[in-house]
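User: Okay, second chain of the day. Same drill as before: sequence in, structure tokens out.
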Amino acid sequence: MKKLLSLNLLLFVLMALAWLLQINLVYPFEQLIFNPELVKVASVIFIPAGFKVLFGTILGLRSLPAVFLATLFGMWLHTEALGFSAQFAFVSTIALYIPVLLVNFLDKDSGELADEWAKRAPLTLFRKTVVIAVLASLLNSFFSVLVHGSASHPDAWMHFLIGDVVGTIVVVAIIVGVRAKLYRLLMTLVAKERLKDR
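Assistant: Same drill. Structure tokens below.
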């Protein structure tokens, strides 16, 4: 339990840093290029989605507390509206873990050895993460329309999709490309958690 708490604290800090990067660098840059009103609704390069999807893909439900709380915190920093931020965090967390659980369920048929290989192989991890990002983004857009009605910008769902997928590709490409300490750290933590679960 203590290790899970430490893991979620680390994930929360990483996602909070991603949100700070998004709010202070990416959003201002995007507002120079795209319609500023649309960028407020949906980013075209959403870095926090990359971390969220990567953590969900590798750690499954063990990352859920950090993902939810960091999303709540980040959206609150962005909007200063706690109620909306809570709804956004709830919807986007549900939208993430539906494909995470589905893909992991489908992956179980290939056996534990294949599952371990898939999580260690950078290209397989990359593909799996991008598939989850696309599915999670589509579900997030769908659920957001159900909760909030049609968006003020009709193209917002496309920006959600593009932003989540591009953000995920950027984060995973950096981690896979670098394949340094963070990637090894995540794999070590997963291995320790799995041994502990047995």
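The radius of gyration is 16 Å.

User: Thanks, on to the next one.
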